[in-house]
Specification:
The protein is α/β, with parallel strands linked by helices. Among the domains are: 163 residues, Tetratricopeptide repeat domain (Serine Threonine Protein Phosphatase 5, Tetratricopeptide repeat, Alpha Horseshoe); 126 residues, Roll (Ubiquitin-like (UB roll)), CATH 3.10.20.90. Helices cover 50% and strands 10% of the residues. The strands form two sheets. Strands 2, 3, 4, 5, 6 and 8 form a six-stranded mixed sheet that branches. A two-stranded parallel sheet has the order 1-7. Strand 3 and strand 4 form a beta hairpin. Helix 5 packs antiparallel against helix 6, helix 9 packs antiparallel against helix 10 and helix 9 runs parallel beside helix 11. It is elongated. The termini are far apart.
């Protein structure tokens, strides 16, 4: 209790001695720890001494934190459930105690209630809500498993927490919660979470047929056929006549057969592709066609140089071909130009060109050229089979694509001169 001393007339007079004298604004009051060092404090104060008020002790938490750094204080706070920003599942008894106090009744009773609520939500096809209810029950009972593993005593509201029958009952409910939550995960398409919950249930009871079934179904849904087959076999080992398991077994067999057929077909295609590649190289060599790959080949989609195997000995080569119109910066693409075909045959459907408003391009009104290996030009006869052109010693097919320049005859001479001049400049730059 604070001591109050009556102010007598003598003390009051003393206190008023300097009342009429102007004084500066009072300085802030000094603590008792600095009073002795102050030069303004009179050595012999007039009147009785003021009572000494003891400095209160620091609160326990502040005293506990005295001398600690900010990081150390924050680390301590994170161990308290009320201030946690991260969960430590392995070692936070305060958190588990707070969770236990959040519900009335024992962990078993509360988990059973959550299971019932989850079942109701599941019947109403509220899969996410049901999963949440089951998850809360799982959290309660796995918390009990961890508590017992640490050797901690039961919570105050759970006197039978370490009783063998209570533990068995808890694990039975926990098993059901895992299996039921797995069903929710399956409905929600969370296949990995489904088989993880099933694995947790099977760790408690390896004879849980529902866990085997849901595991197999989730694994099959993501194409993990071999693992699905193992899960199904595990369930059938427990109950060989289980209808859902036998049904999923048939699905697994059908999927395995389909996968085997697909794998065999892919392998056949690989072998066939390799064989055709060998035959194509042989045909190109036999027909005198030189080929080269550039550093940046064009994207031609599924169009490619091929050997069409027919009754003709050696087969027939086809080439993706680009008709370039450099005078107008346009082009056309022919997906498969046979070695036996001529430009005139293709001009029959290529001309007239939709953008040729002046009518400069026609089968008889254009000249055609191909670039040579040395950077020159060779004239391509419009009635000559393509093979005769691409098999010339001076010509090569780059990246499997034939490129033919198509120029109006009236502009051909000027364009050829420009082309050669441009190539000459390129060679000069390359030489320097």
């Amino acid at each position: 209790m604070v001591h109050l001393e009556e102010i007598t007339d003598k003390i009051e007079t003393t206190l008023r001695v300097s009342e009429d004298k102007p004084t500066p604004n009072p300085a802030p009051a000094q603590s008792s720890s600095t009073q002795n060092a102050s030069s303004t404090t009179p050595s012999n104060p007039i009147g009785p001494a003021l009572p000494t008020v003891p400095i209160p002790a620091l609160p326990p938490q502040l005293a506990h934190n005295a001398g600690k750094s900010v990081d150390e204080i924050l680390a301590d706070l994170n161990k308290s459930p009320l201030f946690m920003t991260e969960l430590d599942d392995n070692n936070n008894t305060d958190l588990e105690a707070l969770q236990a106090l959040a519900y009335e009744g024992t962990p078993l009773e509360n988990a059973t209630d959550f299971k019932a609520s989850g079942n109701e939500a599941f019947r109403e096809k509220r899969w996410a809500d049901a999963r949440e209810f089951y998850g809360r029950g799982v959290a309660l009972l796995t918390g009990e498993e961890k508590r017992r593993a640490r050797g901690d005593p039961p919570h105050a509201n759970d006197a039978l927490g370490n009783d063998e029958s209570e533990i068995a009952a808890q694990r039975s409910v926990l098993e059901a919660l895992y299996v039921n939550r797995a069903a929710c995960q399956l409905e929600l398409g969370n296949h990995r979470q489904c088989w993880l919950d099933c694995a947790a249930a099977l760790a408690l009871n390896s004879r849980n047929v529902k866990a085997w079934y849901r595991s197999a179904k989730a694994l099959l849904a993501v194409g993990r056929v071999a693992e699905a087959d193992e899960a199904c076999a595990g369930g059938l080992a427990v109950d060989a006549n289980n209808g859902p398991l036998r049904a999923i077994a048939r699905e697994i067999v059908a999927k395995a057969e389909a996968d085997a057929r697909k794998t065999a077909e892919e392998e056949r295609r690989k072998v066939e592709s390799a064989r055709r590649g060998v035959n194509l190289r042989k045909a190109l060599e036999a027909k005198g066609v030189k080929v080269r790959k550039s550093a940046l080949p064009p994207d031609t989609g599924d169009a490619r140089m091929e050997l069409v195997e027919d009754e003709n000995e050696g087969g027939t080569l086809t080439f993706p071909t680009v008709l370039l119109y450099p005078a107008h910066y346009e082009s056309d693409f022919i997906k498969a130009f046979s070695e036996k075909e001529t430009l005139m045959q293709h001009f029959g459907y290529v001309f007239p060109l939709p953008w040729d408003k002046a009518g400069e391009y026609s089968a008889n009104g254009v000249g055609c050229f191909m670039e040579t290996i040395t950077g020159g030009l060779v004239k391509v006869g419009k009635k000559v089979a393509l093979l005769k052109v691409v098999s010339l010693d001076s010509v090569e097919v780059v990246d499997g694509v034939v490129k033919i320049y198509v120029i109006p005859k009236a502009k051909a001479e000027g364009w050829v001169a420009e082309f050669k001049a441009a190539k000459a400049k390129e060679k000069e730059k390359g030489g320097t």
